[in-house]
Write a structure and sequence with these properties.
Blueprint (H helix, E strand, L loop, with lengths): L11 H15 L4 E7 L5 H14 L3 E6 L10 H8 L16 H4 L17 H14 L6 E6 L6 H13 L5 E8 L4 H11 L4 E4 L5 H12 L8 H11 L3 H13 L3 E4 L2 E4 L7 H14 L2 H14 L2 E3 H8 L3 H13 L3 E3 L6 E4 L2 H9 L3 H18 L6 H12 L3 H17 L3 H18 L2 H18 L2 H6 L1 H8 L5 H17 L3 H15 L5 H17 L5 H19 L2 H15 L4 H17 L3 H19 L3 H13 L2 H17 L4 H17 L2 H16 L4 H13 L8 H15 L3 H17 L12 H8 L5 H8 L7 H17 L3 H14 L4 H18 L4 H14 L3 H13 L16 H4 L5 H10 L5 H8 L3 H15 L4 H17 L1
Parallel strand pairs: 1-4, 1-5, 2-3, 3-4
Antiparallel strand pairs: 6-7, 8-10, 9-10
Helix pairs in contact: 1-2, 5-6, 6-7, 8-10, 9-10, 10-11, 11-15, 12-15, 12-16, 13-16, 16-17, 17-18, 18-19, 18-20, 19-20, 20-23, 22-23, 23-24, 23-25, 24-25, 25-26, 25-27, 26-27, 27-28, 27-29, 28-29, 29-30, 30-31, 31-32, 31-33, 32-33, 33-34, 33-35, 35-36, 37-39, 38-39, 39-40, 39-41, 41-42, 42-43, ...
Length: 974
């Protein structure tokens, strides 16, 4: 009989889509196709058909598969796929990859210089893309990645970049994913939603299609398949091609289905338990390979669904000829297949085969095979490079050797953390910690915790991190050295800092210093000092900035002496934050030093932190969010939840400042839900402050208070964010209520608060709107304005708009109206991205300008009045209208249609009815004609025309008609 149907059944549409995608790739229009379906539905078979079609068309094919058993290894499927390039005999060393070649050393051992690389996932993704394109040779390239539901987070990070950038390349990425919940499935669905990939869902076969599949297997027609057999296969398989084939094999193996001269017929009842029938059928096929074949495949099953022949041979002691003979027999029996992307690797066709083999092994036999497998791996690969370390760890664990397994998992986790692979690091180190706790090895357990604690902090799992406090108490009395214990307490202090729990963090620092005693180890002290510096900066106190800076400088100096690059980076980042207030150039230089150090020493997480702070400085300086967005993308790929949501908070505040309302509120609410659950207190406080500011900028005091009440519950008092709640929220709310005295009182409270608890957040208003209000009130003049303008904080874009407006008011009072008007223009350019602040500024300076006789105060007030009316801020709207009346300017009622009036005309006070008449003047109509068109009297038209001439300054009706042609006709034609 046939062992596989001669053609795919029920997949014509999917094959057509793949053929078209392959053709597009050959013509330089690459793309991504995800094959999604349940286990056994035929994803791999369909992918194999695509491989055959690609090879038949002369395309290059690369294949990789994620590990389905054992610990996840960073980049495994990508490494497996790319390594096949080196088996083609093609010279690759001369490829035009430029600076991207050393980056690829993370994936390709042949190009690993040993120096390591800390490039971001974006850079690594670009390097992979360039390699694929450089080896294309005009034929097109198919990259197949299977079982992505088992992929490590780092592979998915690179894959996300490829998904978004393959469109204009000759590369088709074909990936298989199960329908079970996984990050890979999320990636596939997200890519489909944004149009970056096709998602092909493979449904189970229908009953007629099952009949066609069975007939193909039996070499007959569907009508000649016994009805009882077809019913049993349809009911037992639920349309899964794999189950159909396996159940059919079981029936034939058990003698339930036999071939007679007149065709196939049943013997006895074909019904039975599906799972047990599968296991029995698989074992019967294995038993036909003989005792040695069974032993060989049992050993292979212990190694995993994929297994290397070199290790398998060493652990079983079988000779080359027998090994290949049994493997070929296993292939013929449809039990195993060559793992084509990797030489000397085979894999079981389906996971039930592995499970069936385990059923005939006793626990002792399985442990013995695992021990022999670990010994074979360690003999063949003494340094355990790449995935061998995690494989050996898993085998030692299977063998019951907890201590040795824990050490290996610790080493694998350390490597993953160093490479920025946070997801894999947490998984591996959690396994290490649990095993070493069970083994009762405090020294090795301490080593695992040293790496696990920062990994948990970065990934946002604070609950798990703080659970380990009790473990530290146990280790305190376990005979660890002082430096080792101090490191553990310091790591936990850092977790507390990330979670915003400065009290807990300071207690851990005190414990670390107590452990170190009076003659501390220099390297250990540097780590303690830099973590203490970050906690000092967040702990309430009038000298916290100076204290933090002193500790950071001490840590930086010690880090240089003891060659501690990670500590040095952290120290320079904090020093840059403090320096930002006095000298932006000094701050940038420090951050650049941290960035360069992180890159030189392959520290991807520290590189990401430095890049985030550089992006934050750019945002404060000019309102530019590009650097922050790039850092957020990198944090997502590295798995740093802390940085992702830190940036999210800044982007929410940026949305508030830019006048975003519903979309900003939605983003704030969504992110708050997450960070509350994670316990990320600093992110919670920042988002609540931003949400309070959003409500304040709308003049909604009650909603603002609600957000600020929750802010207080998250230890807001004394926090870095507290001054912003006064300046960005309370003071602005008072201004939206037209209560300048209250606004100034709130800003004076900011100054007092920052005297007691200095802040490194610089948008609280003391160097911006507070200066403008003081100048308008006559409590500040040129000297103070110039002093604030000369500061780095006064030069930040949000603050700068108000500082420049204050300068304009001072110039106007000095009788320098022309220069004052020029400064208004400069302020408006700075404020262009901040509509609420821009119109508030115009409203604030207009009356002073009118009083001193400079600028265009009436136009400014009309512009502000329209903005605040449209945004439903009645107090400011009414104040603008009252000021216009005091200036003798007409005030018009708002009617529907004002948005259609060009701003140049709207600021002149032209009403909707006047504008309707103005539009018709472009056709030079008479008053009677205009009256007929608008259904009003000629007398009313005459009044509108007179009003228009007065407001526009037109010299005559002809001049007014010409203005209508110039101003109104373009609007009418759009």
């Amino acid at each position: 009989m046939r062992f596989q149907a001669p053609s795919l059944i029920g997949r014509d549409a999917q094959l057509g889509l793949l053929d078209q995608a392959l053709a597009d790739a050959r013509h330089g229009r690459g793309g991504v196709v995800f094959l999604v379906g349940e286990a056994g539905v035929g994803k791999s078979r369909l992918a194999a058909e695509a491989v055959g079609s690609a090879l038949g068309a002369g395309m290059g094919v690369l294949r990789g598969r994620s590990s389905t058993t054992g610990p996840a290894v960073p980049f495994r499927p990508l490494t497996e796929a790319l390594m096949s390039l080196f088996r083609t005999g093609e010279p690759l060393d001369e490829l035009p990859l430029g600076p991207y070649r050393p980056v690829l050393g993370r994936l390709i051992p042949d190009w690993n210089t040993g120096a390591g690389d800390s490039s971001s996932m974006v850079i690594l993704g670009e390097a992979v893309l360039r390699l694929l394109m450089a080896t294309d040779h005009g034929r097109g390239r198919l990259l197949v990645l299977e079982d992505l539901h088992d992929a490590d987070p780092e592979t998915l990070g690179v894959l996300e970049y490829l998904v978004d950038n393959l469109e204009y390349s000759p590369v088709l990425l074909l990936a298989t994913v199960r329908t079970d919940f996984s990050d890979a499935l999320d990636l596939a669905q997200s890519a489909r939603r944004r149009g970056a990939a096709s998602l092909v869902e493979l449904s189970p076969l229908t009953r007629p299609e099952v009949g066609e599949l069975v007939a193909g297997q039996l070499g007959t027609t569907p009508d000649d398949v016994p009805t009882a057999v077809l019913e049993r296969l349809w009911e037992g398989s639920a349309g899964s091609p794999y189950l159909v084939e396996e159940l059919l094999q079981s029936m034939i193996g058990a003698g339930t289905l036999v071939q007679a001269l007149d065709g196939w017929r049943t013997v006895g009842d074909p019904r039975g338990d599906v799972s047990s029938a599968l296991a029995r059928g698989i074992l019967r096929r294995i038993e036909r390979l003989g005792a040695e074949g069974l032993t060989l495949l049992s050993a292979a099953a212990v190694l995993g669904r994929r297994f290397p022949l070199t290790v398998l041979q060493r652990m079983t002691g079988i000779d080359d000829r027998a090994l290949l003979s049994h493997l070929h027999a296993g292939v013929a029996a449809r039990l195993v297949v060559p793992d084509e992307p990797a030489p000397d690797w085979y894999s079981f066709r389906h996971s039930p085969t592995v499970e069936a083999l385990f059923t005939q092994l006793t626990p002792g036999q399985r442990a013995d095979l695992a021990r022999r497998g670990a010994e074979a791996v360690e003999k063949l690969h003494p340094l355990l490079p790449g995935e061998w370390c995690a494989l050996a760890a898993g085998l030692r664990s299977e063998a019951g050797e907890d201590a040795e397994a824990g050490k290996l998992f610790t080493e694998a986790g350390r490597r993953a953390l160093a490479a920025g692979a946070l997801g894999s690091a947490v998984t591996l180190l959690n396994q290490a910690e649990a095993l070493l706790a069970r083994a009762g090895d405090p020294q090795e357990r301490a080593g695992a915790l040293e790496h696990l604690l920062p990994a948990l902090a970065e990934s946002g799992d604070f609950h798990r991190a703080f659970e380990l406090v009790e473990h530290l108490h146990a280790l305190d009395s376990a005979g660890l050295g002082a430096s080792r214990l101090a490191v553990l307490h310091t790591r936990l202090a850092k977790v507390a800092h990330t979670a915003g729990r400065w009290g807990d963090g300071n207690r851990q620092i005190d414990r670390a210093r107590e452990v170190l005693g009076t003659s501390p180890d220099g390297a250990a002290s540097a780590s303690v000092d830099v973590t203490a510096a970050y906690l000092a900066l967040d702990t309430p106190g009038s000298d916290r900035t100076q204290h933090a800076e002193k500790l950071a400088r001490s840590a930086a100096e010690a880090a240089e002496r003891h060659a501690l690059p990670s500590v040095a980076c952290q120290a320079w980042e904090l020093l840059a934050t403090v320096a930002r207030e006095r000298d932006p150039d000094e701050s940038r230089a420090m951050l650049q030093k941290a960035l360069t150090t992180a890159e030189r020493h392959q520290l991807p997480l520290r590189r990401m932190y430095a890049a985030t702070r550089i992006g934050g400085n750019d945002w404060l300086a000019e309102g530019d969010t590009a650097g922050l967005l790039a850092a957020r993308e990198e944090a997502l790929r590295l798995g740093s939840i802390n940085i992702v949501h830190t940036v999210d908070g800044i982007l929410v505040l940026d949305g508030v400042m830019r006048g975003g309302r519903e979309e900003t509120r939605e983003a704030a609410t969504e992110t708050l839900t997450i960070v509350r659950r994670l316990g990320l207190a600093p992110a919670v406080r920042y988002l609540l402050m931003s949400l309070a500011s959003l409500e304040a900028h709308q003049g909604d005091r009650q909603a603002m208070r609600t957000a600020l009440d929750e802010f207080a519950e998250w230890e807001g008092a004394g926090s870095q964010e507290e001054p912003l709640t006064l300046g960005m929220a309370r003071a602005f709310c008072a201004l939206m209520e037209e209560d300048r005295d209250l606004a100034r009182a709130e800003l004076r409270a900011v100054s007092a608060l920052e005297g007691h608890n200095p802040s490194t957040y610089h948008l609280s208003g003391t160097h911006g709107v507070g200066l403008l209000l003081d100048v308008l009130a006559g409590d500040a003049g040129r000297a103070r304005q110039q002093a604030v303008a000369a500061t780095a904080v006064g030069g930040m874009r949000w603050n700068r708009q108000f500082v420049t407006l204050a300068e304009a008011v001072v110039l106007g009072r000095e009788g320098k109206g022309e220069r004052a008007t020029e400064r208004i223009g400069t302020a408006l350019r700075d404020a262009a991205v901040y509509p609420a602040a821009l119109h508030l500024g115009l409203r604030l300076v207009a009356e002073s300008a009118h009083e001193d006789g400079w600028g265009e105060p009436v136009a400014w007030l009309r512009r502000a009045e329209h903005h605040f009316h449209e945004n439903r801020v009645p107090a400011v709207t009414n104040a603008c209208r009252a000021a216009l009346r005091r200036m003798g300017a007409p005030v018009h009622q708002h009617r529907s249609g004002t948005d259609g009036i060009p701003e140049e005309l709207r600021t002149l006070g032209i009403t909707v009815r006047e504008y309707e008449a103005f539009l018709l003047l472009a056709d030079r109509l008479s008053n009677k004609d205009i009256a007929d068109r608008l259904f009003i009297s000629p007398r009313t038209v005459e009044k509108h025309i007179a009003g228009l001439m007065n407001k526009t300054g037109a010299a005559s009706r002809a001049d007014l008609c010409a203005r209508s042609v110039r101003l109104a006709r373009p609007w009418r034609e759009t």
